[in-house]
Amino acid sequence: MVPWEIISKASSFIAEEMGVALRRSSLSPNIKERSDHSCAIADSNGNIVAQAEHIPVHLGSLRVGVKLLLKEIEKEGIGLNEGDMIVSNDPYITGTHLNDVTLLSPIYHGDNIIGYVVNKAHHIDIGGPSYGSINPFATSIYEEGLIIPPLKLVEKGNIRRDILSIILSNVKVPRISDGDFKAQIAANIAGIRRVRELISKYGIKDVLDGWKSSIAHAFKLAVDEINKWPEGTYFSEDYLEVGQHELVKLKGKVTIAKNKILVEFPNAPKQVEMPFNAVLGVTFSAVSFPIRSVMRVEIPVNEGFYSIIDLRAESGTIINPVPPAPVSGGNLETSQRIADLIFLALSKAIPSRVPAAGSGTMMNVMMGGFDEKKGQRWAYYETIGGGSGARPNSDGISGVHVNMTNTMNTPIEVAEATYPIMFTSYTIREGSGGNGRYRGGDGMVRSFKVLSKTRISIMASRFLSSPWGVGGGREGKKARVVIRKANGEVISINPLMSMVLEEGDEVIIETPGGGGYGEPE
Questions:
Q1: Residue 1 confidence (pLDDT)
Q2: Which of 193, 218, 243 represents a domain boundary (last residue)?
């Protein structure tokens, strides 16, 4: 009998290899350069058994999304044969937002499905009125892009051209989207092949037993860890921008009890007709990430760990909306604030492990237009890092993506070669981190000029509220965006904006710094 640890580690590496295949074969810089994708393996019941170290907001959502997707497939009577792949981006099923397209494939052994491989990738455009599809002013999900219900994109090993054609007919840069869909297909093919090789080497019984043992082991480690934490209920409050000048208060309530952690959101705001509603998958992701982050032991992140978290989110609220509420920013910005809330509550239970708040925004930039020199439309998406919060024993880190995003940047050279833009600066925003015994990391300044007429949209937060400090540490500086028109006019931008830029207009983005830790000496 092979040790279960071998099966567990091998399965994690299979998920990592899926990610490598997806990234290397994709066409969009958002996936190829920024790694905006995630991969995992689930058992026959939809329980996550292994995942790669990809994006927190994707990975936690897969715990919710895979089970809901399987339930929807069963409800619709969709049979899964060997070689089939199901595609969907419905946030109320798959768990994030429309840009994140999920592709799920069964793993057959003989006549039986013994598990699934699944990946999720952020497509730079999925239709709708805005370039990048993330519409800052959407009042319903129908204004955010094409909704793809669970459908067979691949049937018995063959791509359904009819389904793919419908999707590509709704996006602004179909050649890029076509390549990214095929990269997702390639990733699942690689995952299935590797799982079969694992079964061939060790046998089906040892593989399935290994998955069960890995889940049980993660549960035991997680329970042992939280049972060392002080039992009790801990509260927190923070604010989220949901409009040009509007803040809503979010409240967190974390109860540490024997063998479990209960997370609630007292008096959660009702869902809004703005794109800041976080579907349940996003909320679960944003809750599980801080809890896992403050654990000192190495714990496999699978159903064993996820099962210690009891999330209660009232339906019809901003943290668990019902259709047709718009949700693109819930995945991007509300997720960040939920994570901040949980970190802040945990800082009152175990202050020696929790950092101050990081920048707290993904600072989403969506652009596009018609490139006359190349004679084609283009769409561009970027999230811009900031400062991480100061830690109990050291300063924060400057110029990084924090919390719910784990992506990289698009290198300036790649962006300039691909799109009609020219960068004018890319540097650390000195002094933006909060003061304290340990300083928060500094944010970033990233600025560029557009070289042709361009529609730009920005969706961000921490313009009106600041990243908080811990133990007397000072707040980090707020976000700031300025547009310097070619005629010399300077325009200050709010957290939500969409406008047309003319050739030569410059966009200057300054991201928040992290909060400080402890009273300044």
A1: 81
A2: 218
* 227 within domain boundaries: no
Burial class (CB in 10 A: 0-12, 13-18, 19+), 365: buried
d(CA 317, CA 272): 8
Extract the residue ranges of the chain whose pLDDT is less than 50: none
Q: Can you say whether the dihedral through the CA atoms of 189, 191, 194, 200 is positive or negative?
A: negative
Distance set, CA 1 to CA 115, 220, 269 (Å):
21, 22, 53
Q: Which residues pair with 247 in a beta bridge?
A: 241
DSSP 139-168: SSGGGS-----SEEEEETTEE-HHHHHHHH
Alpha-carbon distance of 130 to 31, in angstroms, equals 20
Query: Is residue 233 packed enough to be buried (19+ CB in 10 Å), middle (13-18) or exposed (0-12)?
Result: middle
β-strand pairing of 421-429 with 443-450:
antiparallel
H or E element, residue 290: helix 280-293
First to last CA, the chain: 58
State residue 501 phi and psi, 5-degree precision: -100, 145
Q: Which residues contact 467 (CB under 8 A, 6 or more apart)?
A: 340, 356, 357, 358, 359, 360, 387, 389, 434, 440, 475, 476, 512, 513, 514, 515
Closest-CA residue to 333 (of 272, 372, 288, 286)? 286
Asked whether residue 40 is domain-assigned, the answer is yes
Position 28, amino acid: S
- In a domain, residue 241? The reply is no
Amino acid sitting at position 449: K
Q: Which residue segment(s) compose the domain that 26 sits in?
A: 4-218
Residue found by looking up tokens 């339930």 in the block: 71
pLDDT at residue 108, as a whole number: 98
Question: Is there a domain that residue 454 lies in?
Answer: yes
User: Could you read off the pLDDT of 244-266 as tens digits, one per residue?
Assistant: 788 999 999 999 999 999 999 99
The whole-angstrom separation of Cα 22 and Cα 121 is 9
CA-nearest of 398, 416, 374, 413 to 477 is 398
8 A C-beta contact, residue 150 and residue 91: no
Within its chain, how far is the Cα of 491 from the centroid? 30
Threshold 0.90, pTM exceeds: yes
**Helix-, strand-, coil-residue percentages of the chain, each rounded to 5:** 30, 25, 40
What residues have CB less than 8 Å from 253, skipping those under 6 apart?
A: 233, 234, 235, 263, 264, 265, 266, 345
Sheet containing 364-371: give its strands across.
Answer: 376-383, 364-371, 454-459, 496-501
Give the three-state DSSP class for 453.
Answer: coil
Whether 359 and 214 map to the same domain: the answer is no
Strand bridging mode 309-312 / 260-264: parallel
